[in-house]
Write a structure and sequence with these properties.
Layout: E1 14-17, E2 22-26, E3 37-40, H1 43-51, H2 58-74, H3 81-96, H4 103-117, H5 124-154, E4 162-165, H6 182-189, E5 195-199, H7 206-217, E6 221-225, H8 230-235, E7 241-244, E8 248-250, E9 255-258, H9 261-270, E10 275-278, E11 284-285, H10 302-305, E12 325-328, E13 335-338, E14 341-343, H11 347-364
This protein binds 5-S-methyl-1-O-phosphono-5-thio-D-ribulose (MRU).
Length: 366
Protein backbone atom coordinates (compact mmCIF):
# COMPACT_ATOMS: atom_id res chain seq x y z
CA UNK A 1 0.00 0.00 0.00
CA UNK A 2 1.37 3.42 -0.81
CA UNK A 3 0.21 7.03 -0.98
CA UNK A 4 1.88 10.18 -2.26
CA UNK A 5 2.04 13.73 -0.84
CA UNK A 6 4.01 16.91 -1.44
CA UNK A 7 6.79 17.61 1.03
CA UNK A 8 9.22 15.28 2.73
CA UNK A 9 8.82 17.41 5.87
CA UNK A 10 5.23 16.16 6.24
CA UNK A 11 6.30 12.62 7.01
CA UNK A 12 8.05 10.65 9.69
CA UNK A 13 10.99 8.59 8.41
CA UNK A 14 9.96 5.54 10.41
CA UNK A 15 6.91 4.98 12.60
CA UNK A 16 4.51 2.41 14.00
CA UNK A 17 0.92 2.43 12.77
CA UNK A 18 -0.98 0.69 15.57
CA UNK A 19 -4.27 0.64 13.70
CA UNK A 20 -2.82 -1.23 10.73
CA UNK A 21 -0.18 -3.07 12.77
CA UNK A 22 2.40 -1.83 10.31
CA UNK A 23 5.87 -0.36 10.09
CA UNK A 24 5.46 2.86 8.12
CA UNK A 25 8.48 4.24 6.27
CA UNK A 26 9.37 6.70 3.54
CA UNK A 27 10.80 4.59 0.70
CA UNK A 28 14.22 6.22 0.48
CA UNK A 29 15.12 4.45 -2.77
CA UNK A 30 12.48 6.58 -4.53
CA UNK A 31 13.78 9.96 -3.31
CA UNK A 32 14.12 12.69 -4.41
CA UNK A 33 11.62 12.14 -7.25
CA UNK A 34 8.78 10.40 -5.47
CA UNK A 35 7.69 10.52 -1.88
CA UNK A 36 6.27 7.07 -1.46
CA UNK A 37 5.10 5.86 1.93
CA UNK A 38 5.26 2.13 2.58
CA UNK A 39 3.12 0.37 5.14
CA UNK A 40 4.83 -2.95 5.91
CA UNK A 41 3.16 -5.73 7.85
CA UNK A 42 5.06 -8.91 6.89
CA UNK A 43 8.48 -9.85 8.27
CA UNK A 44 9.84 -10.54 4.77
CA UNK A 45 8.79 -7.01 3.70
CA UNK A 46 10.51 -5.48 6.73
CA UNK A 47 13.68 -7.53 6.18
CA UNK A 48 13.72 -6.44 2.52
CA UNK A 49 13.14 -2.79 3.43
CA UNK A 50 16.29 -2.83 5.57
CA UNK A 51 18.36 -4.88 3.11
CA UNK A 52 17.29 -2.79 0.09
CA UNK A 53 17.89 0.52 1.94
CA UNK A 54 14.23 1.60 1.70
CA UNK A 55 14.83 2.44 5.34
CA UNK A 56 18.47 3.21 6.06
CA UNK A 57 20.81 5.14 8.32
CA UNK A 58 21.87 3.57 11.59
CA UNK A 59 19.27 5.07 14.01
CA UNK A 60 16.36 4.60 11.58
CA UNK A 61 17.39 0.97 11.02
CA UNK A 62 17.36 0.48 14.81
CA UNK A 63 13.88 1.95 15.17
CA UNK A 64 12.61 -0.09 12.20
CA UNK A 65 14.02 -3.26 13.78
CA UNK A 66 12.38 -2.52 17.14
CA UNK A 67 9.00 -1.97 15.50
CA UNK A 68 9.59 -4.96 13.22
CA UNK A 69 10.30 -7.37 16.06
CA UNK A 70 7.29 -6.08 18.00
CA UNK A 71 5.09 -6.75 14.95
CA UNK A 72 6.55 -10.26 14.70
CA UNK A 73 5.92 -10.84 18.42
CA UNK A 74 2.34 -9.63 18.09
CA UNK A 75 1.60 -12.44 15.62
CA UNK A 76 3.14 -15.21 17.75
CA UNK A 77 0.74 -17.89 18.88
CA UNK A 78 1.98 -19.56 22.05
CA UNK A 79 0.46 -21.13 25.14
CA UNK A 80 3.43 -20.48 27.41
CA UNK A 81 5.97 -17.70 27.70
CA UNK A 82 8.78 -20.22 26.97
CA UNK A 83 7.17 -21.18 23.68
CA UNK A 84 6.62 -17.47 23.00
CA UNK A 85 10.29 -16.69 23.62
CA UNK A 86 11.53 -19.47 21.28
CA UNK A 87 9.47 -17.99 18.46
CA UNK A 88 10.57 -14.46 19.39
CA UNK A 89 14.24 -15.49 19.16
CA UNK A 90 13.75 -16.98 15.69
CA UNK A 91 12.13 -13.73 14.49
CA UNK A 92 14.98 -11.73 16.03
CA UNK A 93 17.64 -13.80 14.25
CA UNK A 94 15.86 -13.31 10.96
CA UNK A 95 15.75 -9.50 11.24
CA UNK A 96 19.34 -9.40 12.50
CA UNK A 97 20.51 -10.97 9.23
CA UNK A 98 19.32 -8.01 7.11
CA UNK A 99 22.47 -5.79 7.31
CA UNK A 100 25.76 -6.34 9.17
CA UNK A 101 27.48 -3.02 9.91
CA UNK A 102 25.11 -0.60 11.66
CA UNK A 103 25.18 -1.71 15.28
CA UNK A 104 21.83 -0.03 15.99
CA UNK A 105 20.11 -3.00 14.34
CA UNK A 106 21.56 -5.38 16.93
CA UNK A 107 21.29 -2.83 19.74
CA UNK A 108 17.54 -2.41 19.18
CA UNK A 109 16.89 -6.14 18.76
CA UNK A 110 18.91 -6.91 21.92
CA UNK A 111 17.04 -4.24 23.88
CA UNK A 112 13.73 -5.79 22.81
CA UNK A 113 15.13 -9.23 23.68
CA UNK A 114 16.21 -8.05 27.16
CA UNK A 115 12.74 -6.62 27.67
CA UNK A 116 11.12 -9.88 26.59
CA UNK A 117 13.33 -12.03 28.86
CA UNK A 118 12.75 -9.75 31.84
CA UNK A 119 9.01 -10.39 31.54
CA UNK A 120 8.84 -14.13 30.93
CA UNK A 121 6.89 -14.53 34.17
CA UNK A 122 3.94 -12.85 32.39
CA UNK A 123 1.47 -14.23 29.85
CA UNK A 124 2.24 -13.93 26.11
CA UNK A 125 -0.42 -11.27 25.67
CA UNK A 126 1.03 -9.19 28.53
CA UNK A 127 4.53 -9.53 27.03
CA UNK A 128 3.22 -8.33 23.66
CA UNK A 129 1.90 -5.13 25.28
CA UNK A 130 5.25 -4.55 27.04
CA UNK A 131 7.14 -5.06 23.76
CA UNK A 132 4.84 -2.58 22.08
CA UNK A 133 5.69 0.07 24.68
CA UNK A 134 9.43 -0.66 24.40
CA UNK A 135 9.38 -0.25 20.60
CA UNK A 136 7.51 3.06 20.98
CA UNK A 137 10.07 4.17 23.62
CA UNK A 138 12.97 3.38 21.24
CA UNK A 139 11.24 5.44 18.56
CA UNK A 140 10.50 8.40 20.86
CA UNK A 141 13.92 8.46 22.56
CA UNK A 142 15.59 8.94 19.18
CA UNK A 143 14.12 12.45 18.95
CA UNK A 144 15.60 13.46 22.33
CA UNK A 145 18.95 11.84 21.50
CA UNK A 146 19.31 13.71 18.19
CA UNK A 147 18.31 17.03 19.76
CA UNK A 148 20.95 16.60 22.47
CA UNK A 149 23.58 15.80 19.83
CA UNK A 150 22.48 18.91 17.94
CA UNK A 151 22.90 21.12 21.00
CA UNK A 152 26.38 19.78 21.80
CA UNK A 153 27.33 20.06 18.12
CA UNK A 154 26.14 23.65 17.94
CA UNK A 155 28.46 24.58 20.82
CA UNK A 156 31.43 23.74 18.56
CA UNK A 157 30.69 26.15 15.72
CA UNK A 158 29.72 29.76 15.13
CA UNK A 159 27.24 31.64 12.94
CA UNK A 160 28.18 31.76 9.26
CA UNK A 161 30.49 28.71 9.45
CA UNK A 162 30.97 26.35 6.54
CA UNK A 163 30.10 22.74 7.43
CA UNK A 164 30.72 19.64 5.37
CA UNK A 165 28.89 16.33 5.66
CA UNK A 166 29.09 12.97 3.92
CA UNK A 167 26.30 10.49 3.14
CA UNK A 168 22.98 11.08 4.88
CA UNK A 169 22.92 11.38 8.64
CA UNK A 170 19.88 13.60 8.43
CA UNK A 171 16.25 13.38 9.47
CA UNK A 172 15.88 10.66 6.82
CA UNK A 173 18.33 8.52 8.81
CA UNK A 174 16.58 9.05 12.16
CA UNK A 175 13.14 9.87 13.53
CA UNK A 176 13.73 13.65 13.53
CA UNK A 177 16.64 16.18 13.27
CA UNK A 178 19.25 13.61 12.16
CA UNK A 179 22.58 13.29 13.92
CA UNK A 180 25.12 15.13 11.75
CA UNK A 181 22.39 17.50 10.58
CA UNK A 182 21.01 18.17 14.07
CA UNK A 183 23.44 21.08 14.71
CA UNK A 184 22.47 22.43 11.27
CA UNK A 185 18.71 22.31 11.92
CA UNK A 186 19.04 23.70 15.45
CA UNK A 187 21.40 26.40 14.12
CA UNK A 188 18.81 27.30 11.50
CA UNK A 189 16.21 27.82 14.26
CA UNK A 190 18.67 30.19 15.96
CA UNK A 191 19.72 32.14 12.83
CA UNK A 192 23.23 30.69 12.40
CA UNK A 193 23.16 30.86 8.56
CA UNK A 194 25.53 27.97 8.00
CA UNK A 195 26.93 27.26 4.52
CA UNK A 196 26.68 23.50 4.12
CA UNK A 197 28.54 21.28 1.68
CA UNK A 198 27.04 17.85 1.02
CA UNK A 199 29.17 15.16 -0.64
CA UNK A 200 27.11 13.33 -3.25
CA UNK A 201 28.30 9.98 -1.82
CA UNK A 202 28.99 7.37 -4.48
CA UNK A 203 27.75 4.87 -5.35
CA UNK A 204 24.19 5.24 -3.97
CA UNK A 205 24.16 9.05 -3.85
CA UNK A 206 22.68 9.40 -0.35
CA UNK A 207 24.29 12.86 -0.15
CA UNK A 208 22.70 14.10 -3.37
CA UNK A 209 19.37 12.29 -3.21
CA UNK A 210 18.77 12.58 0.54
CA UNK A 211 20.98 15.12 2.36
CA UNK A 212 20.93 17.86 -0.29
CA UNK A 213 17.22 17.14 -0.73
CA UNK A 214 16.14 17.35 2.91
CA UNK A 215 18.36 20.36 3.74
CA UNK A 216 17.21 22.23 0.62
CA UNK A 217 13.55 21.42 1.33
CA UNK A 218 14.09 22.75 4.86
CA UNK A 219 15.47 26.03 3.52
CA UNK A 220 19.13 25.63 4.53
CA UNK A 221 22.00 26.91 2.37
CA UNK A 222 23.36 23.66 0.91
CA UNK A 223 25.86 23.14 -1.92
CA UNK A 224 26.25 19.72 -3.47
CA UNK A 225 29.79 18.57 -4.33
CA UNK A 226 31.21 15.33 -5.75
CA UNK A 227 33.11 13.08 -3.37
CA UNK A 228 36.43 14.09 -4.93
CA UNK A 229 35.91 17.82 -4.23
CA UNK A 230 36.24 18.01 -0.47
CA UNK A 231 39.93 18.96 -0.77
CA UNK A 232 39.01 21.82 -3.12
CA UNK A 233 36.54 23.41 -0.70
CA UNK A 234 38.75 22.81 2.34
CA UNK A 235 41.82 24.26 0.65
CA UNK A 236 39.83 27.42 -0.13
CA UNK A 237 39.02 27.72 3.59
CA UNK A 238 35.31 27.23 3.02
CA UNK A 239 34.88 24.50 5.64
CA UNK A 240 35.17 25.15 9.39
CA UNK A 241 34.04 21.73 10.58
CA UNK A 242 33.02 18.32 9.30
CA UNK A 243 29.99 16.65 10.90
CA UNK A 244 29.26 13.05 9.93
CA UNK A 245 27.15 10.23 11.31
CA UNK A 246 28.33 6.70 11.96
CA UNK A 247 27.24 3.11 11.78
CA UNK A 248 29.46 1.74 14.52
CA UNK A 249 32.01 3.35 16.83
CA UNK A 250 34.56 0.93 18.32
CA UNK A 251 35.78 1.18 21.91
CA UNK A 252 38.96 2.99 20.79
CA UNK A 253 37.01 5.58 18.76
CA UNK A 254 37.66 4.09 15.31
CA UNK A 255 34.46 4.79 13.41
CA UNK A 256 32.70 2.97 10.57
CA UNK A 257 30.59 5.23 8.41
CA UNK A 258 29.60 5.42 4.76
CA UNK A 259 32.56 4.68 2.49
CA UNK A 260 34.42 7.91 1.73
CA UNK A 261 34.21 9.28 5.28
CA UNK A 262 37.79 8.21 5.96
CA UNK A 263 38.93 10.07 2.83
CA UNK A 264 37.16 13.26 3.99
CA UNK A 265 38.74 12.93 7.44
CA UNK A 266 42.21 12.45 5.96
CA UNK A 267 41.82 15.57 3.82
CA UNK A 268 40.39 17.50 6.79
CA UNK A 269 43.47 16.64 8.86
CA UNK A 270 45.65 18.09 6.06
CA UNK A 271 43.72 21.39 6.20
CA UNK A 272 43.25 21.54 9.99
CA UNK A 273 39.49 21.17 9.81
CA UNK A 274 38.05 19.34 12.86
CA UNK A 275 36.05 16.19 12.17
CA UNK A 276 33.17 15.43 14.53
CA UNK A 277 31.38 12.09 14.61
CA UNK A 278 27.75 12.47 15.66
CA UNK A 279 26.99 9.26 17.52
CA UNK A 280 24.01 8.24 19.62
CA UNK A 281 25.30 5.90 22.34
CA UNK A 282 23.25 3.18 20.59
CA UNK A 283 25.85 3.37 17.79
CA UNK A 284 28.85 3.05 20.12
CA UNK A 285 29.88 -0.55 20.62
CA UNK A 286 32.31 -0.98 23.51
CA UNK A 287 32.36 -4.72 22.75
CA UNK A 288 34.09 -4.02 19.45
CA UNK A 289 37.70 -3.18 20.43
CA UNK A 290 38.92 -1.46 17.22
CA UNK A 291 37.86 -0.61 13.68
CA UNK A 292 39.56 -3.79 12.42
CA UNK A 293 36.89 -5.78 14.27
CA UNK A 294 33.98 -4.14 12.44
CA UNK A 295 32.31 -6.24 9.74
CA UNK A 296 32.07 -4.09 6.62
CA UNK A 297 29.13 -4.81 4.34
CA UNK A 298 29.93 -5.35 0.66
CA UNK A 299 27.23 -4.67 -1.89
CA UNK A 300 26.54 -5.67 -5.50
CA UNK A 301 28.96 -4.51 -8.25
CA UNK A 302 26.08 -3.12 -10.31
CA UNK A 303 25.72 -0.25 -7.82
CA UNK A 304 28.99 1.05 -9.30
CA UNK A 305 28.89 -0.13 -12.90
CA UNK A 306 25.26 0.40 -13.87
CA UNK A 307 23.09 2.15 -11.36
CA UNK A 308 21.98 5.69 -12.36
CA UNK A 309 23.36 5.27 -15.91
CA UNK A 310 21.33 4.70 -19.07
CA UNK A 311 23.84 2.05 -20.05
CA UNK A 312 26.65 0.21 -18.28
CA UNK A 313 29.64 2.51 -17.69
CA UNK A 314 32.35 -0.09 -17.09
CA UNK A 315 33.84 -2.83 -19.24
CA UNK A 316 32.05 -6.17 -19.07
CA UNK A 317 33.82 -8.52 -16.71
CA UNK A 318 35.93 -5.87 -14.94
CA UNK A 319 36.58 -6.60 -11.25
CA UNK A 320 34.67 -4.37 -8.83
CA UNK A 321 35.17 -3.76 -5.10
CA UNK A 322 32.14 -2.18 -3.40
CA UNK A 323 32.53 -1.88 0.38
CA UNK A 324 29.58 0.05 1.75
CA UNK A 325 31.45 1.59 4.71
CA UNK A 326 34.99 2.49 5.69
CA UNK A 327 36.69 2.99 9.03
CA UNK A 328 37.98 6.41 10.02
CA UNK A 329 40.98 5.99 12.34
CA UNK A 330 40.50 7.59 15.74
CA UNK A 331 43.49 9.92 15.30
CA UNK A 332 41.60 11.74 12.52
CA UNK A 333 38.64 12.49 14.81
CA UNK A 334 38.46 15.66 16.95
CA UNK A 335 35.39 14.60 18.93
CA UNK A 336 32.56 12.09 19.15
CA UNK A 337 29.32 13.93 19.93
CA UNK A 338 26.80 11.86 21.89
CA UNK A 339 23.55 12.64 23.69
CA UNK A 340 25.54 12.66 26.94
CA UNK A 341 28.30 15.05 25.86
CA UNK A 342 31.35 15.20 23.63
CA UNK A 343 34.03 12.51 23.92
CA UNK A 344 37.54 13.77 23.16
CA UNK A 345 40.73 11.80 22.53
CA UNK A 346 41.86 9.48 24.01
CA UNK A 347 38.52 7.84 23.22
CA UNK A 348 39.12 4.57 25.08
CA UNK A 349 38.76 6.60 28.27
CA UNK A 350 36.29 9.31 27.23
CA UNK A 351 33.78 6.87 25.70
CA UNK A 352 33.70 4.90 28.95
CA UNK A 353 32.96 8.19 30.77
CA UNK A 354 30.07 8.86 28.39
CA UNK A 355 28.54 5.49 29.31
CA UNK A 356 29.01 6.28 33.02
CA UNK A 357 27.07 9.51 32.46
CA UNK A 358 24.38 7.54 30.64
CA UNK A 359 24.07 5.11 33.54
CA UNK A 360 23.90 7.96 36.09
CA UNK A 361 21.19 9.66 33.99
CA UNK A 362 19.16 6.42 33.79
CA UNK A 363 19.56 5.72 37.51
CA UNK A 364 18.42 9.24 38.43
CA UNK A 365 15.27 8.80 36.29
CA UNK A 366 14.26 5.49 37.87
O1 LIG B 1 24.12 2.53 3.70
P1 LIG B 1 23.41 3.61 4.46
O2 LIG B 1 22.74 4.62 3.60
O3 LIG B 1 22.51 3.03 5.54
O4 LIG B 1 24.60 4.34 5.21
C1 LIG B 1 24.29 5.36 6.12
C2 LIG B 1 25.46 6.04 6.70
O5 LIG B 1 26.60 5.68 6.52
C3 LIG B 1 25.13 7.14 7.62
O6 LIG B 1 26.09 8.14 7.54
C4 LIG B 1 25.08 6.56 9.03
O7 LIG B 1 24.18 5.49 9.10
C5 LIG B 1 24.76 7.56 10.03
S1 LIG B 1 23.04 7.79 10.18
C6 LIG B 1 22.68 8.96 11.32
Amino acid sequence: MSETKKSILDYETVALDDEKSALVIIDQTKLPYDIEILSLTKQKEIWNAIYLLQVRGAPAIGVAAAIGIYLAAKEIEADTSEEFYDKFKAAKEYLASSRPTAVNLFWALNRMDDCCRANLDKTPSEIKKILHDEAVAIHDEDVWVCKQIGQYGLSLVKPGDGLLTHCNAGKLATVKYGTATAPMYLGQEQGYNFRIFADETRPLLQGARLTAFELHESGLDVTLICDNMSASVMKKGLVNAVFVGCDRVAANGDTANKVGTSLVATVAKRYNVPVYICAPTSTIDLNTPTGDDIHIEERPAEEITEMWYKERMAPDGVKVFNPCFDVTDNDLIAGIITEYGIARPPFAQSLKEIFEKKKAHKDSNK
